Structures are given as structure tokens and as C-alpha cells.
Amino acid sequence: MDKRMYHYATVSKALAELTKKGYTTDFNLREDHVAKNCEQFTIEEVYRYEGETDPADEATVYGIQSEEGEKGVFVASHGAYTENSAATMLHNMTLANR
Questions:
Q1: Three-class SS of residue 47?
Q2: Res. 12 pLDDT band, cuts 50 70 90
Q3: Dihedral, 79, 85, 88, 89 alpha carbons, nearest 10
Q4: Which of 57, 16, 69 is nearest to 6 (CA)?
Q5: Cα separation, 43 vs 65, whole angstroms
Q6: Sheet holding 59-66: strands in order across?
Q7: Of 1, 4, 52, 77, which sits 20 to 30 A from 91 (CA to CA)?
Q8: What's the gap between Cα 93 and its chain centre?
Q9: Looking at the record's lineage, which domain of life comes first (predicted)?
Q10: Closest residue by Cα to residue 52 from 11, 81, 9, 16
Q11: Within its chain, how far is the Cα of 51 from the centroid?
């Protein structure tokens, strides 16, 4: 499936757009589950937010779907990319599918 990457002015605008599209689960609340079971998720959409004045404000918003059809979002901030984090797993999945 083609991944669509968008850029919006704010993370909240990206989240609002995904909510309109049915991505209602907050997978950040289940980060360990996503990280340990990343093969059970597909990335449907990717939204980038880049802070204009502070690089620490950078974030990526993923619209992901589980094998069971549950659709939700995962927000990865610039500092979230540790070795076994869900953010790293999703980032690597995005790069692998380009």
C-alpha cells in the first residue's frame, strides 16, 4: 500500500485530519504493545511537523492500522527514537516501505 506523507502546520491539525478519517485509537497509550508487535500494524499515513524555531518541536504523526482493523494514531517526538521504542519501529517501517 502506498504511504501518503503530508505536512501540516501543527500536530493538532494532523491529528484532527486523521480523526476525521477514522483513526481514533491513541496508540501512544499502548506503545509497548506496538513496539513488541510492530509486524501486526501497517502504516497508512504519515504526517510531519517541523518546528520553525526549535528543532525539539519536530514530530511525526503516524496513522496506523492493526491486523484486526483498529485504526489509530501514534505521535513520535524528535526525542522518542530510542533503540526499542515504537517510534523507532514505525520510522524503520516507513523507510523500508519507500
A1: strand
A2: confident
A3: -160
A4: 16
A5: 7
A6: 4-7, 41-49, 59-66, 71-77, 25-26
A7: 52
A8: 11
A9: Bacteria
A10: 9
A11: 17
